[in-house]
Amino acid sequence: MRAVHFVPAAVVLLALGALGAVAQLDHPAATAAPVAATRPVTVSSADRVCPPALGGGSGTVASIAAPAQAPGSTVSGQAELTALPQAGLALHPVNPVSLTSAGALTLLTVPAASSTAKKGSQTPAGWSVSASGTMAQAIEAEVAQTSGLASVRCAEPGSDIWFAGPGQQNGASQIQLDLMNIDSLTANVEIRMITDAGPVQLGNGTGITVPPHTTVTQSLASAAGSSAVVAIEVHTTAGRVAADVSEGGSHGGTTNWLPNAAEPSTKLVIPGVPQSSGAAGLYLAVPGSANAKVNVVAITTQGQFRPFSSQAVELPSESASYVALPPLGGAAAALEISSNVPVTAAVLVPGSGVGAFTAATAPVSEQAVVAGSGAAGPAARASQVSSVPAGRTVVVPVKAPAGAKSGSPFAIVITPLSGSGPLYAARVETRGQTVVSIIPAVSALTTISLPPVRDSYDAVSP
After folding, report:
1. Which terminus of the chain faces fewer neighbouring Cβ atoms within 10 Å, N or C?
2. Is residue 454 in a domain?
3. Are 117 and 186 found together in one domain?
4. 346 in Cβ contact with 259 (< 8 Å)
């Protein structure tokens, strides 16, 4: 295990220090006018990919498609969930599940795939969520409990995906990777693992083939060995995939999802570190060949401070490390991380099972949607405006919209208002004093901006 050292800190640029934000919950605001150099285009097609339900069998997907429409407007297009069965297995076909409501939360039960060779045998399957027309606007989906509480976000397919979390020494004796391919092109995937002991060679080095419209599941526990920390990179050399990592203990205890972490960068923000009775832990991965000097600033409800005082954390190259966070002033916080070389990061908060994770993410652009929020108590107003002072974290209690039945699940829409600075957010769910779920808020767009087309053409010929 490589040691973690501390070195004197340099001057840190606080990206959030001079900016504030105003956000509206549960009621999307109009999109700000695009700058002259870009052209707004309405989103007409979108995909999300959900991993198989933990433990196999059927599962629940919480989904919301299209924001609430203006009076007299119509909803076009469709959204449906399509099974992505395990590659190479002879299975009965599973019919698509349609999402019919726009602007409202829907809880969908998705069945497991069943074997054609062995009656009653079920195998977990991933699910693609494909939407078109207005049903594609601001679509979001999460794998949820039957109560509607989201446990992991259904992500977009990509070509470079990162995770960071504990290894076997810290309770994760089971590490499972699910790879889902929603395209008609075969995806070739290379898995890179970095631990506290350095890089790990996986398999025979030939990579993993994920056929079209299938799921491939791999156990990474043996490769991780007795490591205390693991960081996992999923990189495609052809095609694209969605990826999810789940971790659990060896005796059938609670299994937890690792959220997708931001790609390595010299500037990161991790939102949604709640007040907790136990100490949170910071997982950091340095994928490059140069050592990292990492500075951490906690942005709390009381203001900003450096949890490691006037020191920076020094991390060796090509390694993953765990750093225990001191108490963050007994308040909810976000972490701003700056480094001399690109790093990626996640935070583990004590809670049920291994705990609850939050990871580095991008600021909210246009709006963010968390589809699966837990059952609520007495109803409250459906929309509220909250001001977030510069360099502060604000805790906003959210309840179900007025008129909703007690115990009903609900979705949350977070919209930065005009003139706001960068806004980061996460939905935190607690039961008593126990944190059970954290979902970092990710942008769910209704429009995208395209660069202008110019009357020139450049090409390079070999």
Report:
1. C
2. no
3. no
4. yes
Q: Residue 85, SS3?
A: coil
Range of the domain at 47: 42-68+76-155
Q: What is the chain's Cα-based Rg?
A: 22
Q: How confident is the model at residue 296 (pLDDT cuts 50, 70, 90)?
A: very high
The whole model's pTM is what? 0.87
Among candidate residues 155, 176, 194, the one where a domain is terminated: 155
Q: What CATH number is given to the structural domain containing 107?
A: 2.60.120
Length of the chain: 462
179 with 82, same domain: the answer is no
In the structure, what pLDDT confidence band is assigned to residue 12 with cuts at 50, 70 and 90? very low
349-369 residue pLDDT tens: 887 777 889 999 999 998 888
Whether 176 and 127 map to the same domain: the answer is no
Output the pLDDT for position 454.
Answer: 64
User: Residue 264 in contact with residue 162, Cβ under 8 Å?
Assistant: yes
The string of DSSP letters for 245-267 reads EEEE-TTS---EEEPPBPPPEEE
Strands ordered across the beta sheet of 174-181: 214-219, 174-181, 242-248, 256-258
The residue among 223, 257, 198, 271 whose CA lies nearest residue 52 is: 257
Instruction: Reduce the DSSP state of residue 133 to 3 states and report it.
Output: helix
The chain-wide mean pLDDT, for the chain, equals 82
395 band by pLDDT with thresholds 50, 70 and 90: confident
